[in-house]
Amino acid sequence: MYFDIDAVRAQFPALAIADAGRRRIYLDNPAGTQVPASVAKAMSDCLLKSNANLGGNFPSSDAADAVVAAAREAMARFLNAPSSSEIVFGQNMTTITLHMSRSIGRLFSPGDEIILSRMDHDANVWPWVLLARDLDLSVKWLPFSPETFEFDLGELDDLLNDRTRLVCVGGASNLTGTLNDVTSICAKARAVGALTFIDGVQSVPHVATDVQALGCDFLVCSPYKFFGPHQGVLWGRQEVLERLEPYKVRPAPVDVPGCFETGTQSHEGFAGITAAVDYFEWIGTSMAEASAGRQACHAAMDLLFDYEKSLAAHLINGLTGINGVTVQGITAADAMDRRVPTVSFTHAAMAPAEIARSLAQENIFVWSGHNYAVEVAKTLGLYESGGVVRIGPVHYNSASELDEFLTALEEILGS
Q: Which of 182, 273, 288, 337 is the most buried (most CB within 10 A)?
């Protein structure tokens, strides 16, 4: 296996853009990645050749039906879902979660308990808090250690009981970068008969995801975080989806998964999703020497994560050497497999927003603030002080780009 970063970067036209002669350095990827040319072409082709609604008796509608079916099959391969009928599409992860929470909540009774995490993006927190308020459910919180940035799953054992109905947790933190032991969390929840809802938005772009191995009941992710279009995807266990009452208009489909997809969907987005999965399969077959399909996706993710771990280690090593900088996440060199390459930091004297603005002037793109990780920022005592600066390299970034970032940062901080 080998990783050819030049071949990878050649797939992404945005990486060649320069502003006033200065190249762009995209380190804003946890909020959304750039796309390969193949994704843009697939979306354009769909709009130009398959632009119709579904279920008609004419060629453009037949083509649109094929686009949707191909996208379901692609995401089923990518997540190793048992069936493409378990793939539900929506506008984004937040919208899907808010929508599905209404159906899931109909399984619960007043006094039932749900467990939420202090490490999660608010999209896997507040929909459930609102549900608990509306249905008189009890909310329990799984904390994480602000010293280790990880869960103690013994604390989850203390929270679980025979009234627990749902456990919601993220695959990885969008602020600290911590990768969570989702398989163990799901097993513990399943042992007391609770459902699990996994926010895979930050983990799916970096690590191979197998929903069958995880043992979860729902997993949501966002293709625009893994080189695709602005879409949301939910995988749900077939037997669980079939227990739910969908909130839909009367003429809408009655069968899973269409009954959960409100209104006309973005078929061009579906075409882009298929192309994004095809991009991973290209890496798997050309660089990881894997066969096609799910095996190629898995091999690609393993190859890319190995490379991304080297980027994370390089970045963290550089940040910890800058006076006044504190990395808000796992930093041990031998622990890079327990985190994604998203790295956040604070500085003793300069506010995160000021640092991000100064980097933007150097055409280096990063984010600052709480990044919707409200509970995380509060746990770390950073919510009121402006949060963090978040850097998110992915596999199309290079070590030289990180070096440019670190040099610019030192100049900005006066180190």
A: 273
